[in-house]
Amino acid sequence: MIHEDRTLITPMKWVLFPVHGKVTDVSFPQQQPATISLNIVGEGGGTLAISGTAGIQPPGADLNVNLNRLSLRQLQPMADTVGRLEITGGTLSVIGRAATTGGAEGPKFRFEGELTASDLSLLDTKSAKPIFRQEELQINGIRFDVKPNSLVFDEVVDRRPYVYLVIEEDGSTNLENALKLEDENVEAIEKSLLGQMVDFIAQQIRGAVPVRVNSARIEEGSIHLVRRWLRKWR
After folding, report:
1. 1-5, 15-19, 37-41, 165-169: the lowest-pLDDT one
2. Domain extents for the chain?
């Protein structure tokens, strides 16, 4: 399967091959939920595996989800649209369980699992300097509920983050100058396939989502700070 999104400044191309799917125990009228499995491999790196049960009478699903080492470089067209950042490395992995139910008891949707972003690096294309690096962001004990809404992170660990921060003479920083959040750029992101998917999900979540983080820590973080305005006093 090939999809090319031309709403962005740089077209975003997704090549998914091979794609394997299987459905068993399908009945109508439904006697029991069907068993489903789906395995997708991305050309740019990463795999997605979904397995579990789903039914329509009543509507509901109970699925195991495993996203393994999705290359974040696939998102470079979005970075080109909103700034002068180059994604030079990074992968995303998510493993967990997603369940939805049409019944009256409990949340309408729940995801429980963990997320890992590894070896992320961003380059400022104007200065050709790394602006951000991160060995690993690990989020354990994620629990996201919809109706009632809540988002809980049991533990957040940021390992060896590095930030190159330049304060210019006018008080601006290289981080904010690397972004171009004009209306037309934001609109292009919203019209993209990923933007539409996010909008669809947001429409299903009505009301505020309370967030709680039980534990958070940074391990061996560093900041390289450059203040250019000091030069005028020398």
Report:
1. 1-5
2. 2-233
Q: Please answer whether residues 17 and 41 qualify as being in contact, where contact means their C-beta atoms are separated by less than 8 angstroms.
A: yes
DSSP, residue by residue, 191-217: HSHHHHHHHHHHHH--S---EEES-EE
Using one digit for the tens of pLDDT, what is the confidence trace for 170-198?
A: 888 999 889 877 778 888 888 898 889 88
The pLDDT value recorded for residue 230 is: 55
- Under a CB-based contact definition with an 8 Å cutoff, are residues 134 and 128 in contact? no
Q: What are the tens digits of pLDDT across the range 41-54?
A: 988 789 999 999 99
